[in-house]
Write a structure and sequence with these properties.
383 residues, alpha/beta, Aspartate Aminotransferase, domain 1, 2 domains, seven-stranded mixed sheet, three-stranded antiparallel sheet, 14 helices
């Protein structure tokens, strides 16, 4: 068995969700919304299943979806992409794996920002790369360019950045992004940008894609997700955007991974990108209201929370809450009290933080209220 995976357990998301199912706990751990998602897009997929082809679509993706992605980013982010620069993937995780397998040569170093999505490191290592880690610290999770400079060696070829940042629920601002762009150009580094949360931003904040900064058009892979845009996480429809010399290499790796993604879902996402801007905006406001509902309920119950500028997530600061437990112990005890959460220490590859616990607020009001009630009872028992 490959040593990268031999000692690896089940991902924390599946483990906590399985325990929630077994115990009847309210699942605020794994990040998926309640409800059916964007119903016009679901209906479009159902129609396409009966009325369009169900055979292999083109390997890079249906031209209708590739064009819709390019048009969407032109409207929302001012990008000038052609359909040939878009490759459809079976979710953003496949896009990440494709990027690593296509671009990394054995021994290449990849700078990552931790806390980080738990798929990053094993996928980089499986592609022959060496992950290096720049650490972000709560409560603001800011990136210091000096930390990037300290990691650079002659083997450093890539920077992997998630923005908006999961699991920190923060956003990288314009000034920091400009510094990252300067860093990439100065060191001839390709940026692989996981931007799946680009439409789940709050308080009027606008996502800025790194590919749009000076010097980055030819050295960026931008990764997006229809699952996050339309609250359809189980569909696993994503894409990679890159300049033609990079896109052509990405396509070669993609063809031997999933090759293609269900065509009815591709047609439906293309229709959604063209017609559902209003739904996306309304849903952003709904998630913000859910964030505020959970934050206020937790505050009343005696918990201190960290800022949440984006994503579906709100984190509890255990130390700031006066709770003398590490995040793993707290999450284990909380699930016994009826609420599943995620300890943020699992998102660190080295020297983890131990006092931050993440909750998903993309739930119905009744679900959040029931979770708050259980967490209030639990907090009262802690004293």
């Amino acid at each position: 068995m490959n040593p990268i995976y031999a000692a690896m357990g089940t991902t924390i998301f599946e483990a906590m969700s399985a325990r929630a199912r077994e115990t009847g706990a309210i699942n605020l751990g794994q990040g998926f919304p309640d409800g059916l998602g964007c119903e016009p897009v679901v209906e479009a997929a159902a129609r396409a299943l009966r009325e369009r082809s169900n055979q292999y679509p083109p390997m890079p993706g249906l031209i209708e979806l590739r064009r819709a992605v390019a048009d969407h980013y032109a409207r929302h982010q001012g990008l000038n992409l052609s359909p040939e620069e878009v490759i459809v993937t079976s979710g953003a995780t496949e896009a990440l794996a494709t990027s690593f397998l296509a671009l990394i040569e054995p021994g290449d170093e990849v700078i990552c920002l931790q806390p980080l999505y738990d798929a990053y490191a094993p996928l980089i290592q499986r592609a022959g790369g060496v992950p290096l880690y720049a650490r972000l610290e709560p409560p603001h999770w800011t990136l210091d360019r000096a930390a990037l400079e300290a990691l650079v060696t002659p083997r450093t070829r890539f920077l992997l950045i998630c923005n908006p940042v999961n699991p920190a629920a923060s956003m990288v601002g314009a000034e920091t992004l400009a510094g990252i762009a300067d860093f990439c150009v100065a060191h001839d580094v390709i940026a692989i940008c996981d931007e799946v949360w680009e439409h789940v931003t709050f308080d009027g904040a606008r996502h800025l894609p790194l590919i749009g900064f000076p010097g980055m058009r030819e050295r960026t892979v931008k990764i997006g997700s229809a699952g996050k845009i339309f609250a359809l996480t189980g569909w696993k429809v994503g894409w990679m955007c890159a300049a033609p010399p990079i896109a052509r290499v990405l396509a070669k790796a993609h063809q031997f991974l999933t090759f293609s993604t269900p065509p009815n879902l591709q047609w439906a996402v293309a229709e959604g990108l063209a017609t559902q801007d209003g739904w996306v905006q309304d849903t952003r406001h709904r998630f913000q209201r859910s964030r505020d509902r959970l934050a206020e309920g937790l505050k009343t119950a005696g918990y201190a929370t960290l800022p949440s500028a984006a994503t579906y997530f709100l984190s509890i600061d255990l130390a700031g809450s006066g709770i003398a437990m590490d995040d793993r112990s707290f999450s284990e005890a909380l699930i016994e009290a009826g609420v599943a959460s995620i300890p943020v220490s699992v998102f660190y590859a080295e020297t983890p933080a131990t006092h931050v616990v993440r909750l998903c607020f993309a739930k119905e009001d009744a679900t959040l209220d029931a979770a708050i009630e259980r967490m209030a009872d639990f907090r009262a028992r802690l004293g």
